[in-house]
Amino acid sequence: MDVSAVNSLSFEEFVEIFGNVVEKCPLVAAAVWSQRPFTSLGDIEAAIADFIDGLSDSGKEGILRCHPDLAGRDVQRGTLTPESQAEQSQAGLTQLEPEELAQIGALNAQYKQRFGFPFVICARMNDRPAILAQLSQRLGNKPAHELLGAIQEVKRICNLRLQALVRPILPAPAQLSSTPPKL
Amino acid sequence: MDVSAVNSLSFEEFVEIFGNVVEKCPLVAAAVWSQRPFTSLGDIEAAIADFIDGLSDSGKEGILRCHPDLAGRDVQRGTLTPESQAEQSQAGLTQLEPEELAQIGALNAQYKQRFGFPFVICARMNDRPAILAQLSQRLGNKPAHELLGAIQEVKRICNLRLQALVRPILPAPAQLSSTPPKL
């Protein structure tokens, strides 16, 4: 879909298509529909980032709490969203050995105890060892710092989910040639 | 469940139980979990109201856009949330005659065209004729006024959904008897 097609969507269609670019937070897509018309994929992304950045700290924590545990309960139950399923699967998190499951489960529990939200990372940009290393390392962060870092991961996940839905606008040849060349 | 039981819930449990007190916006419950401990049902309700009031106008519009049309597509498809199903059913909106369906559908379409969000009303506090009358009347409101009015309805719906989940705190008998009776 290109951006002009996005701009012609009703809010129902927009929420149906973009409702999970931020995991389980259709409210985000539903809110940014007000910012149409969008000029590019980056413009949609910026509207979403603005919405998230405008939330209070507890709102940002809320965004994170809507995410599933990596390799957690929803993986075992088969109740991940299709987007999360694809991402966790690609990172090898849906087929862990029992010892790995126990290790990641214990670290996740520590992380949630410390920060009050689950560990969120852009699984598509990391492999299994990198994810485990990050989880251990980020456990040592200060809470305010970790909140902002985790929200950055939400934006990375959102960017990749958007890329799967919207074609970036390329400059049209006619527009390029309409700018007089410097002589 | 009483409030002390609510306060002992993990965020996963809290979001699972309270995730739909604002229709399809688990983010709201996930955010207010940060405000624990709560002292009463009213305290939870106030935290939710504060979160909603703190959203930008487009955020408030987003909350409304997560609601289904009354007697709309989700009723026909059977895809309402359980809470919405019970509320619309009690107000008689799931068993309309074809003419009534056409009438409410046309008014809904006009409303969405005018305001950019669906008509939201606390169905439990209104019967079918009152809902139709309100829909016609509110169509004439100014957009800024209608946005605030519709958000009030969201809070009424939320209040009733909370009441179905949490017992209000009653003064304990020991406390009552500790107040010396007037003789």
From TrEMBL, chains A, B:
GO terms for cellular component: peroxisome. It catalyses: 5-hydroxy-2-oxo-4-ureido-2,5-dihydro-1H-imidazole-5-carboxylate + H(+) = (S)-allantoin + CO2. Keywords: Decarboxylase, Lyase, Peroxisome, Purine metabolism. It holds the Pfam family OHCU_decarbox. This is 2-oxo-4-hydroxy-4-carboxy-5-ureidoimidazoline decarboxylase. Belongs to the OHCU decarboxylase family. Residues 7-163 form the Oxo-4-hydroxy-4-carboxy-5-ureidoimidazoline decarboxylase domain. The keyword rRNA-binding does not apply.
